[in-house]
Amino acid sequence: MAFIKINKQNFYHNLKQIALKTGSVEKIAIVLKDNAYGHGLELMARLASEFGIKHAVVRKTFEAELIKSLFETILILGDSIIKDEVFSFTLNTLSDITKAEKGAKVELKVDTGMHRNGIDLDELDEALRLIKKQKLDLIGIMTHYRSADELSSELFWQQKQFEIVKQRVQEARFKNIRFHSHNSAAILRMKHFDEDLVRVGIAAYGYNELAESFDDVVLYPVLSLHAKKISSRVLKSGERIGYGGAFTADKEMLLSTYDLGYGDGWCRDTTQDPYMTSEDLPLLGRVSMDFVMLESAKEEICVMHDAQVASKHFKTIAYEVTTALSPSIPKVVV
Ligand SMILES: *Cc1c(COP(=O)(O)O)cnc(C)c1O
Question: Distance, CA 55 to ligand 1 centroid (Å)?
């Protein structure tokens, strides 16, 4: 089976760069949703915890259960709200507040301009009143930026809105609230950080999707994808391989089949030019469910060591390339 190598040194390098921005490891909440963006939930949680990270973010409660012993707090972005010592839950709407279990730890998401999730600024006072009435334990207030990765000034405008939110929460006499708004792009972009937490995902895994003019932090990809040889054969000139015979040998060639395909979350790829592996070998013909073919006799090949490079080929972003990888691909830490 194909396998993934997780480079621990690179992961720790990236976390350190983020800690330099936040001023402290304790201010990092590592985002582990979607199987840690394809890197392996429990594995990355363990490595992050060994590095000293105390806070995590996931999407669902079942994910949080798997890593509960490793963190002081785990923020769950979208699930039914129950009372728990470690878990806190995102309040996205006013009705989330009324449905929540009494005493549950909650973090209120305020929409400061992204218009995807969160309560409206106009609803803030009502939300705070309901939270008190329902006897919920409000531990955080959060927002999310819609264009932290673009050069525009929208980020600053959203930040201003969030400052208003902070003030109103303090006026309502809530204590010990953690305020957080930054994702990877925002923390990489900002020169000054004065909040309590960042929710950092993609940057920890080694990718910076910012416009190049912001590129002062160097990050290294954590994941590389490898495949093993299944079989080899010699093709004569004119012979075709794979589904549809999409590739025709133009000379005698030694080809091998390797055990990676779209069954593993690798893209089937309908682009014109072939995908080039890390060793600069083209994938020949069509990717099939479990196999790719290359002109190589090596026992093992590195298909990808930088998802951002791969994402350019597939015309997407690094998030999608790594997140698509099947959780069942075995992982080794190097
Ligand atoms: C996914 C997510 C993040 C992390 O975003 P990155 O760009 O990967 O750092 C932060 N906050 C929320 C609410 C998210 O859903």
Answer: 14
Alpha-helical segments (H) within 76-201: 94-99, 124-133, 154-171, 184-189
- What do you get for the CA distance between the two ends of the chain, in Å? 18
In the predicted model, is pLDDT for residue 153 greater than 80? no
Residue 329 to residue 331: CA distance in whole angstroms:
6
Q: What is the largest CA-CA distance in the chain?
A: 79
Give 208's contacts (C-beta < 8 A, 6+ positions apart): 184, 185, 188, 202, 214, 215, 217, 219
pTM over 0.90: yes
- CB 168 within 8 Å of CB 124: yes
Cα distances (Å, whole numbers) of residue 261 to 1, 8, 245, 314: 10, 26, 17, 15
**pLDDT reading at 29 higher than 90:** yes
Handedness of CA 276, 278, 283, 288 (dihedral sign): negative
Contact present, 283 and 293 (Cβ < 8 Å): yes
- With tokens 């919920």, the residue in question is 136
Ligand 1 pocket list (CB less than 6 A): 31, 33, 77, 144, 183-185, 199-203
Q: How many CB atoms lie within 10 A of CB 100?
A: 23
Q: Which CATH number fits domain 8-200: 3.20.20.10, 3.90.1200.10, 3.40.630.30, 2.60.40.10?
A: 3.20.20.10
Cα 58 to averaged position of ligand 1 atoms, centre (Å): 10
The token duo for 94 is: 């006013």
Tens digits of residue pLDDT in 42-54: 999 999 999 999 9
Which residues are tagged catalytic? Answer: 33, 243
pLDDT for 146 equals 83
223-333: CATH topology: Lyase, Ornithine Decarboxylase; Chain A, domain 1 (2.40.37)
